[in-house]
Amino acid sequence: MSKKVIVLGEVRDGALRNVSFEAIAAAKKISGGGEIVGVLIGDSVQDLGQELIQYGADRVVAVEHPHLKYYTSDGFGQAFMAVHEQEEPEAIVFGHTALGKDLSPKIAAKLQSGLVSDVTEIEGEDDDAVFIRPIYSGKAFEKVKINEGPVFFTVRPNNIEPLAQDAGRSGDVSSLSADIQNLRSVVKDVVTKATDGVDMSEAKVIVAGGRGVKGPEGFEPLKELADLLGGAIGASRGACDADYCDYSLQIGQTGKVVTPDLYIAAGISGAIQHLAGMSNSKVIVAINKDPEANIFKVADYGIVGDLFEIIPMMIEEIKQLKVNA
Q1: Which of 58, 63, 236, 275 could serve as 210's disulfide partner, Cβ 3.0–4.6 Å?
Q2: Is 12 among the annotated ligand-binding positions?
Q3: Which residues form a coiled coil (predicted)?
Q4: Is 252 assigned a ligand-binding role in the annotation?
């Protein structure tokens, strides 16, 4: 049976996040040929609608309001429910991001529906779709099939391949007026720490350092390697606790959960809390002086040695490959 699916497009710094396109691809898989409607929420987002359509949405509804410049669960919740009441979809898809993790339970409660969160794979299609999600910090996987009621799920970034962008595809981008009121909190301004390079949650390559980097200066060669590979920098909690880097880089059970194509762990022992945040990476390369380090148990490739010797060798080899390419 065909389903109308609405997909929340997530905007950061005036641009759509990649997980928005991955969510559209997931919506296509369960729609049974039904209409895919993109949803944009913010103070100035309507111009981004055509990009959602180029990645597979059939049309887009934008809700703009001055109170939606910054995310609040109250404001975005009211805006999304206005779209839901207009569209009356059979399915909803969000990205499993900080915003999606906060907003999706609120919407599910309002709709009195179930919610399948953190989906990494979808088996089957249409009404036979089975949603796969990690549980117990990635040590096991759960398969969920929705038998009745609306289909509502969030997708983990970097796990579902987006559709190819079709620059020639176009569709209707409409505006919906919503009365955003009675907000319990209003964000006046957001001050962020300056970060260079790629967003870690969507990076295809991550180079992460642990206590083995021995200090803040130990992250410099890791940053150089990440830049060469077009990737992002990450860290273990041990490195963050030792003040080698900011906690915004922390990967693990109490940090960010990432699933890049390539994860390079340098000087990371592999505590279970760290593995919970990166063990589903497609390829894991571990560098550690201790051959018994736990990180080698999940690594696809392991290098036993001093990271301060190995990382510079990798940098030089990659530079040479780029010169010869």
Answers
A1: 236
A2: no
A3: none
A4: yes
